[in-house]
Write the structure tokens for this entry.
Amino acid sequence: QVQLQESGPGLVKPSETLSLVCTVSGGSITTNWHYWSWIRQAPGKGLEWMGAIDYIGGTAYSPSLQSRTSISRDTSKNQFTLQLTSVTPEDNAVYYCAELGSSGSWGQGTQVTVSS
């Protein structure tokens, strides 16, 4: 069973870069047909898919966030990372990492607050 765990700072200052890491266990991020996504949910709003990196390292991003988002991976650590630049209070949300392909597994989520 694939398990995912998000980690990173819970508080980020406006205009800074948010960096979150998702550590995967119970499976490899290079396994065929696995797609590793970042998803967020702001207070009172629905889930928002931010982007993904696939099992061969290809990436895709939400058009609305593409200019500020970067997803990368470290296969030696079985991790993938989200970077979101120039954050504002509108980026306050619970951030989830998930595998939306074969396993459908999600992390428990991590709260991120943007505040000075």
